[in-house]
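Usage

Read records sequentially. Each one opens with the input sequence:
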Amino acid sequence: MAANTKTSRKAARYAVPVAVAGVAAASVAMVPAFANAGGPDLPKVTAQQLIEKVAASDVQQLTGTAKLSTDLGLPTLASGLLGGGGIAGGSADPQDKVAQLANGTHTFRVAADGPDRQKLTFLDGRDEYTLVHNGTDVWGYDSKSNEAFHEKADGKDAGRGADDKKTADRLGASPQQLAQDLLKEAGPTTDIGVGDTAQVAGRDAYQLVLKPKQSGSTIGSVQIAVDAKNGVPLRVQVLSSQGGKPIAEAGFSQVSFTKPGADTFAFTPPKGAKVTEGADGARKGGEHGKDFKGLESIPGLDALTGAGAGGKGDVKVFGEGWATVARIDTGAGKNLGDLQNDKNAPKEAKQFMDSLGDKVSGKFGQGRIFSTRVVNALITDDGKVYVGAVTKDQLVKTADSAK
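and closes with the structure output:
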Protein backbone atom coordinates (compact mmCIF):
# COMPACT_ATOMS: atom_id res chain seq x y z
CA MET A 1 0.00 0.00 0.00
CA ALA A 2 1.33 3.44 -0.89
CA ALA A 3 2.67 5.54 1.98
CA ASN A 4 0.46 8.47 1.06
CA THR A 5 -2.78 6.43 0.91
CA LYS A 6 -4.73 8.43 3.51
CA THR A 7 -3.75 11.82 2.10
CA SER A 8 -4.14 10.67 -1.49
CA ARG A 9 -7.61 9.32 -0.89
CA LYS A 10 -8.72 12.71 0.42
CA ALA A 11 -7.15 14.49 -2.53
CA ALA A 12 -8.71 12.07 -4.97
CA ARG A 13 -12.17 13.31 -4.09
CA TYR A 14 -11.32 16.46 -6.02
CA ALA A 15 -9.77 15.15 -9.17
CA VAL A 16 -7.30 12.27 -9.31
CA PRO A 17 -5.54 10.17 -6.68
CA VAL A 18 -1.78 9.92 -6.44
CA ALA A 19 -2.18 6.17 -6.09
CA VAL A 20 -4.86 3.50 -6.22
CA ALA A 21 -4.19 1.23 -3.28
CA GLY A 22 -5.77 -1.02 -0.71
CA VAL A 23 -6.99 -3.69 -3.15
CA ALA A 24 -7.78 -6.96 -1.39
CA ALA A 25 -7.04 -9.18 -4.39
CA ALA A 26 -7.01 -12.37 -2.36
CA SER A 27 -10.71 -12.05 -1.55
CA VAL A 28 -11.92 -12.05 -5.15
CA ALA A 29 -12.04 -14.77 -7.78
CA MET A 30 -9.36 -14.11 -10.38
CA VAL A 31 -10.40 -15.23 -13.84
CA PRO A 32 -7.37 -15.90 -16.10
CA ALA A 33 -9.04 -14.54 -19.23
CA PHE A 34 -7.14 -12.86 -22.05
CA ALA A 35 -8.61 -10.96 -24.98
CA ASN A 36 -7.70 -8.09 -27.26
CA ALA A 37 -10.06 -8.49 -30.19
CA GLY A 38 -9.90 -5.31 -32.22
CA GLY A 39 -7.87 -3.42 -29.61
CA PRO A 40 -4.15 -2.65 -29.37
CA ASP A 41 -1.82 -5.63 -29.23
CA LEU A 42 -0.51 -5.67 -25.66
CA PRO A 43 1.41 -8.25 -23.63
CA LYS A 44 -0.94 -10.64 -21.87
CA VAL A 45 -1.61 -10.05 -18.17
CA THR A 46 -3.71 -11.76 -15.53
CA ALA A 47 -6.31 -9.94 -13.47
CA GLN A 48 -4.02 -10.22 -10.46
CA GLN A 49 -1.16 -8.56 -12.33
CA LEU A 50 -3.43 -5.79 -13.61
CA ILE A 51 -4.77 -5.02 -10.13
CA GLU A 52 -1.20 -4.88 -8.83
CA LYS A 53 -0.35 -2.46 -11.64
CA VAL A 54 -3.24 -0.19 -10.63
CA ALA A 55 -2.24 -0.34 -6.96
CA ALA A 56 1.39 0.47 -7.77
CA SER A 57 0.59 3.52 -9.91
CA ASP A 58 2.24 6.64 -8.50
CA VAL A 59 1.12 9.24 -11.05
CA GLN A 60 0.74 12.58 -9.28
CA GLN A 61 0.58 15.09 -12.12
CA LEU A 62 -1.76 15.36 -15.09
CA THR A 63 -4.00 17.63 -17.12
CA GLY A 64 -6.87 16.63 -19.34
CA THR A 65 -10.54 16.60 -20.25
CA ALA A 66 -12.99 14.03 -18.95
CA LYS A 67 -16.66 13.21 -19.34
CA LEU A 68 -19.17 11.77 -16.87
CA SER A 69 -22.40 10.31 -18.28
CA THR A 70 -25.15 8.82 -16.13
CA ASP A 71 -28.38 7.17 -17.25
CA LEU A 72 -30.15 5.80 -14.19
CA GLY A 73 -33.54 5.67 -15.85
CA LEU A 74 -35.00 8.14 -13.38
CA PRO A 75 -38.53 9.50 -13.80
CA THR A 76 -38.72 12.87 -15.56
CA LEU A 77 -39.53 14.72 -12.34
CA ALA A 78 -36.56 13.21 -10.51
CA SER A 79 -34.25 14.05 -13.41
CA GLY A 80 -35.34 17.67 -13.20
CA LEU A 81 -34.78 17.80 -9.46
CA LEU A 82 -31.26 16.44 -9.99
CA GLY A 83 -30.43 19.26 -12.33
CA GLY A 84 -30.22 17.57 -15.70
CA GLY A 85 -30.03 20.99 -17.30
CA GLY A 86 -26.45 21.72 -16.24
CA ILE A 87 -24.01 21.88 -13.36
CA ALA A 88 -23.66 25.66 -13.32
CA GLY A 89 -26.21 27.97 -11.72
CA GLY A 90 -27.35 28.47 -8.13
CA SER A 91 -25.21 28.01 -5.02
CA ALA A 92 -21.44 27.57 -5.33
CA ASP A 93 -21.37 25.04 -2.46
CA PRO A 94 -20.01 21.71 -3.82
CA GLN A 95 -22.69 19.87 -1.84
CA ASP A 96 -25.32 21.43 -4.07
CA LYS A 97 -23.53 20.23 -7.22
CA VAL A 98 -23.07 16.55 -6.35
CA ALA A 99 -26.71 15.52 -6.94
CA GLN A 100 -26.62 17.13 -10.38
CA LEU A 101 -23.92 14.65 -11.43
CA ALA A 102 -26.40 11.80 -10.95
CA ASN A 103 -28.12 12.52 -14.25
CA GLY A 104 -27.14 13.44 -17.79
CA THR A 105 -23.72 14.10 -19.30
CA HIS A 106 -21.12 16.47 -17.88
CA THR A 107 -17.73 17.48 -19.30
CA PHE A 108 -14.92 18.82 -17.16
CA ARG A 109 -11.30 19.84 -17.33
CA VAL A 110 -9.06 18.29 -14.72
CA ALA A 111 -5.60 19.11 -13.39
CA ALA A 112 -3.57 17.64 -10.55
CA ASP A 113 -0.17 18.28 -9.02
CA GLY A 114 0.28 16.00 -6.04
CA PRO A 115 -2.01 15.56 -3.02
CA ASP A 116 -2.34 19.29 -2.27
CA ARG A 117 -3.35 20.77 -5.63
CA GLN A 118 -6.29 19.66 -7.78
CA LYS A 119 -8.76 21.46 -9.99
CA LEU A 120 -12.02 20.52 -11.70
CA THR A 121 -13.82 22.85 -14.08
CA PHE A 122 -17.26 21.68 -15.22
CA LEU A 123 -18.21 22.81 -18.70
CA ASP A 124 -21.94 22.71 -19.27
CA GLY A 125 -22.93 25.30 -21.86
CA ARG A 126 -21.48 28.80 -21.62
CA ASP A 127 -21.36 28.74 -17.82
CA GLU A 128 -18.74 27.05 -15.70
CA TYR A 129 -18.44 25.64 -12.21
CA THR A 130 -14.92 25.40 -10.82
CA LEU A 131 -13.65 23.50 -7.79
CA VAL A 132 -10.07 24.23 -6.71
CA HIS A 133 -7.98 22.66 -3.94
CA ASN A 134 -4.75 24.57 -3.35
CA GLY A 135 -2.93 23.74 -0.14
CA THR A 136 -5.30 24.38 2.77
CA ASP A 137 -7.84 26.28 0.68
CA VAL A 138 -10.84 24.88 -1.15
CA TRP A 139 -12.76 27.14 -3.52
CA GLY A 140 -15.97 26.54 -5.45
CA TYR A 141 -17.08 29.14 -7.99
CA ASP A 142 -20.24 29.33 -10.09
CA SER A 143 -19.84 31.70 -13.03
CA LYS A 144 -23.58 31.98 -13.74
CA SER A 145 -24.57 33.18 -10.27
CA ASN A 146 -21.16 34.81 -9.61
CA GLU A 147 -21.05 33.07 -6.23
CA ALA A 148 -18.00 31.58 -4.53
CA PHE A 149 -17.69 29.05 -1.72
CA HIS A 150 -14.56 28.89 0.47
CA GLU A 151 -13.52 26.26 2.97
CA LYS A 152 -10.33 25.26 4.73
CA ALA A 153 -9.12 21.76 3.87
CA ASP A 154 -7.24 21.17 7.12
CA GLY A 155 -10.26 20.01 9.15
CA LYS A 156 -10.07 22.94 11.60
CA ASP A 157 -13.20 24.83 10.57
CA ALA A 158 -15.29 26.01 13.46
CA GLY A 159 -18.88 24.85 13.59
CA ARG A 160 -18.20 21.46 11.99
CA GLY A 161 -19.20 18.21 13.65
CA ALA A 162 -16.58 15.49 13.98
CA ASP A 163 -18.43 13.23 11.57
CA ASP A 164 -19.18 15.90 8.97
CA LYS A 165 -17.33 15.15 5.73
CA LYS A 166 -15.22 17.90 4.25
CA THR A 167 -15.72 19.25 0.77
CA ALA A 168 -12.79 17.09 -0.31
CA ASP A 169 -14.92 14.00 0.32
CA ARG A 170 -17.99 15.12 -1.61
CA LEU A 171 -17.05 15.20 -5.28
CA GLY A 172 -15.45 11.86 -6.08
CA ALA A 173 -16.48 11.57 -9.73
CA SER A 174 -13.08 10.95 -11.34
CA PRO A 175 -12.38 7.65 -13.14
CA GLN A 176 -9.61 6.93 -10.64
CA GLN A 177 -11.81 7.39 -7.59
CA LEU A 178 -14.60 5.28 -9.05
CA ALA A 179 -12.13 2.52 -9.87
CA GLN A 180 -10.64 2.63 -6.38
CA ASP A 181 -14.05 2.43 -4.72
CA LEU A 182 -15.19 -0.44 -6.93
CA LEU A 183 -12.06 -2.49 -6.36
CA LYS A 184 -12.31 -1.97 -2.61
CA GLU A 185 -15.87 -3.30 -2.63
CA ALA A 186 -15.08 -6.38 -4.74
CA GLY A 187 -15.36 -9.55 -2.69
CA PRO A 188 -16.13 -13.27 -2.95
CA THR A 189 -19.36 -12.53 -4.87
CA THR A 190 -17.38 -10.99 -7.75
CA ASP A 191 -15.55 -12.52 -10.69
CA ILE A 192 -12.65 -10.37 -11.90
CA GLY A 193 -11.05 -10.94 -15.27
CA VAL A 194 -9.25 -9.21 -18.13
CA GLY A 195 -11.40 -8.14 -21.07
CA ASP A 196 -10.61 -6.70 -24.47
CA THR A 197 -7.83 -4.17 -24.78
CA ALA A 198 -8.90 -0.65 -25.76
CA GLN A 199 -7.74 2.84 -26.59
CA VAL A 200 -8.92 5.61 -24.27
CA ALA A 201 -7.89 9.23 -24.81
CA GLY A 202 -5.39 7.99 -27.40
CA ARG A 203 -3.63 5.68 -24.92
CA ASP A 204 -3.40 1.89 -24.98
CA ALA A 205 -5.29 0.29 -22.14
CA TYR A 206 -6.15 -3.05 -20.59
CA GLN A 207 -9.68 -3.59 -19.33
CA LEU A 208 -10.40 -5.06 -15.92
CA VAL A 209 -13.88 -6.61 -15.86
CA LEU A 210 -15.89 -7.13 -12.67
CA LYS A 211 -19.00 -9.34 -12.89
CA PRO A 212 -21.46 -10.48 -10.22
CA LYS A 213 -21.45 -14.22 -9.56
CA GLN A 214 -25.08 -14.19 -8.44
CA SER A 215 -28.07 -13.77 -10.70
CA GLY A 216 -30.64 -11.07 -10.14
CA SER A 217 -28.43 -7.97 -10.13
CA THR A 218 -29.28 -4.99 -12.33
CA ILE A 219 -25.52 -4.57 -12.86
CA GLY A 220 -24.16 -6.74 -15.65
CA SER A 221 -20.50 -5.76 -15.29
CA VAL A 222 -18.10 -2.99 -14.45
CA GLN A 223 -15.25 -2.36 -16.87
CA ILE A 224 -12.18 -0.39 -15.83
CA ALA A 225 -9.78 0.70 -18.59
CA VAL A 226 -6.23 0.84 -17.18
CA ASP A 227 -3.37 2.69 -18.85
CA ALA A 228 -0.97 0.02 -20.10
CA LYS A 229 2.10 2.10 -19.25
CA ASN A 230 1.44 3.75 -15.90
CA GLY A 231 -1.52 1.86 -14.42
CA VAL A 232 -3.81 4.89 -14.12
CA PRO A 233 -7.53 4.07 -14.60
CA LEU A 234 -8.60 6.02 -17.69
CA ARG A 235 -12.27 5.05 -17.84
CA VAL A 236 -14.91 3.28 -15.76
CA GLN A 237 -18.10 1.88 -17.30
CA VAL A 238 -21.03 0.40 -15.37
CA LEU A 239 -23.11 -1.80 -17.69
CA SER A 240 -26.69 -2.96 -17.17
CA SER A 241 -27.60 -6.64 -17.05
CA GLN A 242 -30.40 -5.72 -19.48
CA GLY A 243 -27.98 -4.31 -22.06
CA GLY A 244 -28.16 -0.88 -23.68
CA LYS A 245 -25.84 2.06 -23.13
CA PRO A 246 -23.79 2.23 -19.91
CA ILE A 247 -25.62 3.11 -16.71
CA ALA A 248 -22.65 5.29 -15.86
CA GLU A 249 -19.40 6.11 -17.62
CA ALA A 250 -16.54 8.30 -16.45
CA GLY A 251 -13.45 8.63 -18.56
CA PHE A 252 -10.82 10.85 -20.11
CA SER A 253 -11.25 12.09 -23.66
CA GLN A 254 -7.81 13.73 -23.51
CA VAL A 255 -5.05 13.35 -20.93
CA SER A 256 -1.41 14.33 -20.51
CA PHE A 257 0.70 13.17 -17.60
CA THR A 258 2.66 16.40 -17.33
CA LYS A 259 3.00 19.00 -14.61
CA PRO A 260 0.28 21.69 -14.81
CA GLY A 261 1.28 25.32 -15.07
CA ALA A 262 2.21 27.10 -11.84
CA ASP A 263 -0.84 29.38 -11.93
CA THR A 264 -3.38 26.60 -12.63
CA PHE A 265 -4.48 26.34 -9.01
CA ALA A 266 -4.46 30.02 -8.12
CA PHE A 267 -7.93 31.40 -7.44
CA THR A 268 -9.25 34.79 -6.41
CA PRO A 269 -13.00 35.50 -6.38
CA PRO A 270 -13.98 37.87 -9.19
CA LYS A 271 -14.93 41.40 -8.23
CA GLY A 272 -18.48 41.55 -6.96
CA ALA A 273 -18.77 37.82 -6.31
CA LYS A 274 -20.75 36.73 -3.25
CA VAL A 275 -18.44 34.63 -1.04
CA THR A 276 -19.76 32.09 1.48
CA GLU A 277 -17.42 30.59 4.05
CA GLY A 278 -17.76 26.89 4.81
CA ALA A 279 -18.41 27.32 8.54
CA ASP A 280 -21.19 29.80 7.77
CA GLY A 281 -22.77 27.35 5.38
CA ALA A 282 -22.66 24.62 8.04
CA ARG A 283 -24.52 26.82 10.52
CA LYS A 284 -27.24 27.32 7.93
CA GLY A 285 -27.49 23.63 7.09
CA GLY A 286 -30.97 23.27 8.49
CA GLU A 287 -32.34 25.79 6.04
CA HIS A 288 -32.23 23.38 3.10
CA GLY A 289 -35.22 21.55 4.49
CA LYS A 290 -37.37 24.64 4.00
CA ASP A 291 -37.31 24.07 0.25
CA PHE A 292 -39.55 21.04 0.81
CA LYS A 293 -42.00 22.64 3.19
CA GLY A 294 -45.47 21.25 2.63
CA LEU A 295 -44.46 17.85 1.25
CA GLU A 296 -45.23 16.30 4.61
CA SER A 297 -48.89 17.09 3.99
CA ILE A 298 -49.12 14.73 1.00
CA PRO A 299 -50.96 11.57 2.18
CA GLY A 300 -48.79 8.44 2.29
CA LEU A 301 -45.35 10.07 1.96
CA ASP A 302 -44.70 9.93 5.70
CA ALA A 303 -45.40 6.20 5.63
CA LEU A 304 -42.79 5.61 2.93
CA THR A 305 -40.05 7.25 4.96
CA GLY A 306 -41.04 6.11 8.42
CA ALA A 307 -41.42 9.73 9.43
CA GLY A 308 -45.06 9.32 10.42
CA ALA A 309 -46.35 8.54 13.88
CA GLY A 310 -44.97 5.24 15.08
CA GLY A 311 -42.44 5.02 12.28
CA LYS A 312 -39.56 2.71 13.21
CA GLY A 313 -37.18 2.93 10.31
CA ASP A 314 -35.81 -0.52 11.28
CA VAL A 315 -33.50 -1.96 8.62
CA LYS A 316 -32.70 -5.61 7.86
CA VAL A 317 -30.37 -6.80 5.10
CA PHE A 318 -30.94 -9.89 2.95
CA GLY A 319 -28.47 -11.48 0.57
CA GLU A 320 -24.91 -10.32 -0.07
CA GLY A 321 -22.73 -8.65 -2.63
CA TRP A 322 -24.44 -7.57 -5.84
CA ALA A 323 -27.76 -9.14 -4.77
CA THR A 324 -28.07 -7.34 -1.44
CA VAL A 325 -31.57 -6.11 -0.54
CA ALA A 326 -32.39 -3.88 2.41
CA ARG A 327 -35.80 -3.99 4.10
CA ILE A 328 -36.96 -0.87 5.91
CA ASP A 329 -39.86 -1.38 8.31
CA THR A 330 -41.55 2.00 8.61
CA GLY A 331 -43.86 0.68 11.32
CA ALA A 332 -46.59 2.94 10.02
CA GLY A 333 -48.85 0.20 8.68
CA LYS A 334 -49.66 2.45 5.72
CA ASN A 335 -48.65 2.47 2.11
CA LEU A 336 -49.50 3.84 -1.29
CA GLY A 337 -52.84 2.07 -1.12
CA ASP A 338 -53.88 4.55 1.53
CA LEU A 339 -53.15 7.35 -0.91
CA GLN A 340 -55.22 5.68 -3.61
CA ASN A 341 -58.19 5.16 -1.26
CA ASP A 342 -58.03 8.56 0.39
CA LYS A 343 -60.99 10.57 -0.94
CA ASN A 344 -59.28 13.78 0.17
CA ALA A 345 -56.03 13.05 -1.64
CA PRO A 346 -55.33 15.31 -4.64
CA LYS A 347 -56.13 13.70 -7.99
CA GLU A 348 -52.75 14.80 -9.33
CA ALA A 349 -50.97 13.00 -6.47
CA LYS A 350 -52.75 9.74 -7.28
CA GLN A 351 -51.93 10.06 -10.97
CA PHE A 352 -48.31 10.81 -10.16
CA MET A 353 -47.98 7.72 -7.96
CA ASP A 354 -49.63 5.55 -10.65
CA SER A 355 -47.08 6.77 -13.19
CA LEU A 356 -44.15 5.79 -10.99
CA GLY A 357 -44.83 2.26 -9.85
CA ASP A 358 -46.15 -1.11 -11.01
CA LYS A 359 -48.54 -3.10 -8.82
CA VAL A 360 -47.19 -6.51 -7.77
CA SER A 361 -48.27 -9.32 -5.45
CA GLY A 362 -46.74 -12.40 -3.86
CA LYS A 363 -46.42 -14.28 -0.59
CA PHE A 364 -45.55 -10.96 1.03
CA GLY A 365 -48.96 -9.55 0.08
CA GLN A 366 -49.43 -6.66 -2.31
CA GLY A 367 -47.40 -3.61 -3.11
CA ARG A 368 -45.95 -1.38 -5.75
CA ILE A 369 -42.49 -1.36 -7.35
CA PHE A 370 -40.63 1.84 -8.22
CA SER A 371 -37.89 1.30 -10.75
CA THR A 372 -34.74 2.83 -12.20
CA ARG A 373 -32.13 1.10 -14.36
CA VAL A 374 -30.10 0.44 -11.21
CA VAL A 375 -32.22 0.49 -8.07
CA ASN A 376 -35.67 -1.03 -7.58
CA ALA A 377 -37.84 -0.45 -4.52
CA LEU A 378 -40.91 -2.41 -3.40
CA ILE A 379 -43.41 -0.73 -1.08
CA THR A 380 -45.68 -3.34 0.53
CA ASP A 381 -49.18 -2.98 1.96
CA ASP A 382 -47.92 -3.43 5.51
CA GLY A 383 -45.53 -0.49 5.31
CA LYS A 384 -42.29 -2.26 4.48
CA VAL A 385 -39.81 -1.04 1.85
CA TYR A 386 -37.49 -3.47 0.03
CA VAL A 387 -34.74 -1.76 -1.96
CA GLY A 388 -31.66 -2.94 -3.84
CA ALA A 389 -29.72 -2.93 -7.11
CA VAL A 390 -31.60 -6.03 -8.17
CA THR A 391 -34.24 -6.84 -10.78
CA LYS A 392 -37.97 -6.63 -10.05
CA ASP A 393 -38.26 -10.44 -10.00
CA GLN A 394 -35.36 -10.75 -7.57
CA LEU A 395 -36.89 -8.07 -5.34
CA VAL A 396 -40.23 -9.90 -5.18
CA LYS A 397 -38.45 -13.22 -4.57
CA THR A 398 -36.55 -11.66 -1.67
CA ALA A 399 -39.72 -10.17 -0.17
CA ASP A 400 -41.47 -13.56 -0.46
CA SER A 401 -38.70 -15.37 1.42
CA ALA A 402 -37.91 -12.61 3.96
CA LYS A 403 -38.64 -13.28 7.62
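Summary fields computed downstream for this record:
- The first helix runs from residue 5 to 12.
- The chain has a mean pLDDT of 73.
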